[in-house]
Amino acid sequence: MDLSVNIAGVQLQNPVLAASGTFGYGVEFEDIVDLRRLGAVVTKGLSREPMPGNPSPRLFETASGMLNSVGLQNIGAPAFLRSRLPRLRQLGVMVVANVFGYSREDYLETLAILNDGEGIAAYELNVSCPNTDQGGIVFGTDAHLLSDLVYAAKQAARRPLWVKLSPNVTNIAQLAKVCEDAGADALSLVNTFVGMSIDVQTRRPRFAKIVAGLSGPAIKPIAVRMVWECSRAVKIPIIGMGGIATAEDAVEFLLAGASAVQIGTTNFWDPKATENVIRDLRRFCEHRGIEQVRQLTGAVEIDG
Ligand SMILES: Cc1cc2nc3c(=O)[nH]c(=O)nc-3n(C[C@H](O)[C@H](O)[C@H](O)COP(=O)(O)O)c2cc1C
Prior knowledge:
The protein is of the alpha/beta class. It has one domain: Alpha-Beta Barrel (TIM Barrel), CATH 3.20.20.70. About 35% of the residues lie in helices and about 20% in strands. It has helices at about 75-85, 85-90, 105-115, 135-140, 145-155, 170-180, 220-235, 245-255, 265-270, 275-285, and strands at about 5, 10, 15-20, 40, 60, 65-70, 95-100, 120-125, 160-165, 185-190, 195, 200, 205, 210-215, 240, 260-265. Helix 6 crosses helix 7. The model is unreliable at about 130-135 (pLDDT under 50). Flavin mononucleotide (FMN) binds next to strand 6.
């Protein structure tokens, strides 16, 4: 049973990755998860300079998901190269660096810094974070800005460029095509949905920034639909995510057209979820005589 997949030239031993912002820099999990067994670890979002993030509270659990307002807190790309990447290399982890910025220049300078890091397999460009005042939301929802950013980032990047799309748009397939035309090597989707929650006792929003990003089981059917729509619009590989907790969830995304998947919110309540999904995905395929996991990609059967 062959679980390996190739995402725009990056060979992954299996299609299960840890999602950005839910797995730290990877090293935090080294005593819990055998990191070498994961398809890859996507780092939390990296910027040119360190960022303090938003005030607390930063997380709120809803009936079927989680709202977060972390605000992209991170140590900055130079510190990541100095203090985290060497350990990841030592551990033999496949690393994808997630990158964000507040301007085109921010993105390009962060990519230039990361280009010097040894042992990064690919970049994932976050054009979709809904948690910052002037962040990726502008890029991810405007076709012209997105095209310009992706084109420039592709020129700057010395590694394959994955673009992580915002789901807070009307026509995600159109924006997927914009990214492909601008040179993206692969697409990750989806990021969190903009949500809001109000404490009825105090009548105040639960977060200082008022709105927050919704993730987890609640978003899964929408994310599967978006992967399916995008897979029909582009030829580049898609990495799907949104509420994945089990191997069956992962298979659903693969059938919809994803070549790989990421697990995010589930890590908060089941830190071994990535490893377990890999194990169960292998069993799922073996029980059904599926010899290569990539045979599942886009294999949804639709009449007519
Ligand atoms: C606490 C938290 C922090 C996140 N931080 C980032 C981030 O830094 N960059 C990014 O591209 N996505 C970030 N995300 C989005 C996730 O990577 C993922 O796209 C989203 O949560 C949907 O997947 P899930 O339902 O499995 O969590 C974050 C999500 C959560 C819950």
